[in-house]
């Protein structure tokens, strides 16, 4: 066994991993088709067939809805916009609460604030990093209007339990599936279990169009409201009597024809992308079983994991080295590893200083029914805080092309580190 690269030995991997790239000749053909048509956007912000976008947008929506087995797909310019539109479409507003996860990208928690509603954080399950139904149930109040669950890292949340909880309380389930396109949940796709699911096509995701997002729903009424919010609802509602005006301040969330055309070719590639990401990750997961103090990803029996990232948990007591020592050593071996996932979202200045809209605390201080949930004390979500502070790290599985060779090198590097952990104990990262 050679010396650890951290202490001057030869690294397991000597070349950088290639960046993950799904953009190729097919996207060039699609982009050229749009450029030659001269129509870069088909939208009109007035009541006409073009209110729903141009041919490429509508083709992408049809293909997306067919792939995921839903009635409606609504293309938008990002998943962030999609989450905002989802809150808006459900009519959620000031005085309402939405239960969110502390362990996600920031927009998963800011979406309710856009409509003046309160994000209420529930804690996560330490095995799947997704909302724990028990903590969600405890967070439900008379003001709760929705649960916004995140299918994090590529693994579905406990969607059946959340679905039942939502039904029982007469509230909606929204799924942020930005990191889990194509993940299976029982006999369906993650993202299609809740009232509205949101996918991302940004450049970091499994498949991408640079920027982009898609909402899906089986509800005709919600689909119409999403389409209205996407395209300046306030300017068209007068011509269509009967529309519920709540949250009908529309935005411009329209996707361009160029983006949609590329999105169509990307969707065609999704099955191969998933096969590649999942097969190799599953072999690594199997290879990492049985190391005391190192926990590979959990995959629930009725789910599939599509590995946006490959999460690992380090138990410093049992492994004998800290997460920081482990990640520093792995990095030195030539393996990209990220030491921690995002800080629990409520610890961000916006929540800590309760300043979102203007300077006077709106909507945090807007009414007198202040609960502890509207303050965001340290310790609010103990599991999320502990994972962030001490245990959770991850391989950025969709930032690089972790091929079969790379996965073997990850395994070799981890075994090398575990075998030589005594040498690492005194190392100060
Ligand atoms: C990437 C991501 C988003 C935001 O996607 P954009 O398309 O960049 O707006 C939202 N939620 C999660 C969990 C994400 O990973």
Short structural summary:
With 429 residues, the chain is α/β, with parallel strands linked by helices.
Helix and strand arrangement:
Layout lengths: L24 H13 L17 H14 L3 E5 L2 H11 L7 E4 L6 H8 L3 E4 L11 H7 L4 E7 L8 H11 L2 E5 L7 E2 L2 E2 L6 E5 L12 E5 L2 H11 L2 H4 L20 H31 L6 E2 L14 E5 L1 H4 L3 H10 L16 H4 L29 H10 E4 L8 H16 L1 H4 L5
Parallel strand pairs: 2-3, 2-4, 4-5, 5-8
Antiparallel strand pairs: 1-9, 6-7, 8-9, 10-11, 11-12
The structure holds pyridoxal-5'-phosphate.
The site of pyridoxal-5'-phosphate has 14 residues, from helix 3 and helix 4.
Give the helices and strands as they follow along the chain: HHEHEHEHEHEEEEEHHHEEHHHHEHH
User: Whole-number radius of gyration?
Assistant: 23 Å
**Into which percentage range does the β-strand content fall?**
5-15%
Please tell me what the overall shape is: globular
Poorly predicted segments: none
Helix content: 25-40%
Strand order of the largest sheet: 1-9-8-5-4-2-3
Distance between the termini: 23 Å
Residue-averaged pLDDT? 96
What does this structure look like?
The chain contains 15 helices and 12 strands. By secondary structure, it is an alpha/beta fold. 37% of the residues lie in helices and 12% in strands. The strands form 3 sheets. The protein has a 7-stranded mixed β-sheet with strand order 1-9-8-5-4-2-3, sandwiched between helices. A 3-stranded antiparallel β-sheet has the order 10-11-12. The protein is globular. The chain has helices spanning 25-37, 55-68, 79-89, 107-114, 133-139, 159-169, 220-230, 233-236, 257-287, 316-319, 323-332, 349-352, 382-391, 404-419, 421-424; strands at 72-76, 97-100, 118-121, 144-150, 172-176, 184-185, 188-189, 196-200, 213-217, 294-295, 310-314, 392-395. Pyridoxal-5'-phosphate (PLP) binds at residues 78-80, 104-105, 107-108, 150, 176, 178-179, 200, 202, 213.
């Amino acid at each position: 066994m050679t010396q650890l690269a951290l202490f001057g030995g030869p690294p397991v991997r000597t070349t950088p991993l290639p960046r993950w790239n799904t953009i190729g000749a097919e996207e060039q053909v699609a982009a050229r088709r749009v450029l030659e048509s001269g129509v870069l956007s088909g939208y009109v912000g007035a009541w006409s067939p073009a209110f729903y976008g141009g041919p490429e947008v509508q083709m992408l929506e049809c293909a997306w809805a067919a792939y995921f087995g839903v009635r409606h797909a609504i293309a938008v310019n990002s998943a962030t916009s999609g989450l905002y539109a989802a809150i808006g479409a459900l009519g959620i507003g000031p005085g309402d609460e939405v239960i969110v996860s502390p362990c996600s990208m920031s927009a998963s928690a800011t979406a309710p604030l856009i409509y003046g509603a309160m994000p209420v954080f529930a804690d996560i399950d330490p095995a799947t990093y997704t909302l724990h139904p028990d903590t969600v149930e405890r967070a439900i109040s008379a003001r709760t209007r929705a649960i916004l669950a995140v299918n994090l890292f590529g693994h579905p949340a406990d969607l059946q339990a959340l679905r039942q909880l939502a039904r029982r309380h007469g509230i909606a389930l929204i799924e942020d599936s930005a990191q889990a396109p194509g993940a299976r949940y029982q006999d369906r796709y993650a993202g299609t279990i809740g009232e509205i699911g949101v996918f991302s096509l940004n450049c970091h995701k499994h498949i991408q169009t640079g920027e982009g997002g898609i909402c899906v729903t089986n509800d005709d009424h919600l689909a119409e409201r999403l389409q209205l919010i996407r395209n300046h609802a306030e300017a068209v509602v007068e011509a269509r009597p009967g529309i519920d005006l709540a949250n009908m301040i529309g935005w411009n969330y329209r996707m361009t024809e160029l983006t949609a055309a590329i999105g169509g070719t990307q969707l065609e590639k999704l099955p191969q992308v998933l096969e590649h990401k999942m097969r190799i990750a599953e072999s690594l997961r199997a290879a990492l079983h049985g190391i005391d103090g190192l926990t590979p990803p959990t995959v629930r029996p009725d789910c599939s994991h599509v590995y946006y990232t490959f999460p690992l948990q380090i138990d410093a007591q049992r492994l004998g080295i800290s997460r920081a020592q482990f990640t520093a050593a792995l990095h030195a071996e030539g393996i990209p590893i990220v030491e921690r996932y995002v800080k629990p979202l409520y610890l961000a200045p916006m929540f800590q200083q309760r300043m979102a809209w203007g300077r006077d605390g709106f909507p945090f201080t807007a009414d007198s029914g202040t609960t502890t949930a509207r303050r965001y004390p340290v310790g609010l979500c103990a599991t999320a805080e502990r994972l962030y502070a001490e245990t959770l790290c991850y391989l950025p599985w969709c930032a690089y092309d972790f091929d079969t060779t790379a996965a073997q090198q990850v395994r070799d590097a981890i075994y090398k580190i575990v075998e030589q952990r005594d040498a690492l104990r005194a190392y100060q990262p």
